Amino acid sequence: MSSPDLTAYIAKTPNGLKLSIALEELGLPYKTHELDLFSGEQKQDWFLAISPFSLMPALVDTNGPDGKPISIFESGSILQYLAERYDPENKISYPAGSREAYEVTNWLFFHNATMSPKQSYALQFHVVEPEGYAARKFRNESLEGFSILESVLAKSTSGFIVGDHLSIADITFYTYMQTAMMSGIDLTKYPSVKAWRERIAARPAVQRGETKPFKPMPEISMEARLQFMKAWYEKDMNWRAPKEEEKAAEQEEQNK
């Protein structure tokens, strides 16, 4: 396998942190491009060529599996790529075909397909319409997921979600803990989750992944964070809406 030549396109969000933490845990050399999401840098053509739906994070490996550059997007796909291609010592994974490897895939897909959307919507509606039906629905569904995670970690003899060491399953759940707290979830009601989060946060590689690739940011209050998120949701919605309206108008014209 050739030497890695990796560029991480990230921002300091839960999904962006998954990539930087995984790279630090693996001890891989990498370059970073910190995206300015609020200015819409992720909407520019050069980035859309890497990640077609403007999704962040994205990873470019100049020395791809066939020796040619490859772009990987979606955080779960990126974590699997790094584990399969650059983790021969199973630092954040388990041997292919093992019980633990399949269990990691279970939890990775569960988070990406189920927990992550519910937590994201719980925060969004907590910010935009905290007393509405959607806010209550997604918060309750997030709480259900936390109860499941609490049960798993309470039974774990290692303190990790799968097996006897940190894996990409832990990384993908860990970075969304801040989102949960911002949406009003009290981690003290989930003692095993709280203790697990504190252990992960104390790891030197995790601390590097949370700080090293990013420009320093001033500490702000929770209220200020929520106001920032509200402004972000409005901006992102406005970016996407015109294109959808244009497509609908074009389709209507074609149907005449």
TrEMBL record:
Residues 3-90 form the GST N-terminal domain. It holds the Pfam family GST_N_2. Residues 97-220 form the GST C-terminal domain. CDD domains: GST_N_Ure2p_like (cd03048). It comes from the Eukaryota. Keywords: Transferase. GO terms for molecular function: transferase activity. Belongs to the GST superfamily. This is Glutathione S-transferase protein. It comes from Ascosphaera apis ARSEF 7405.
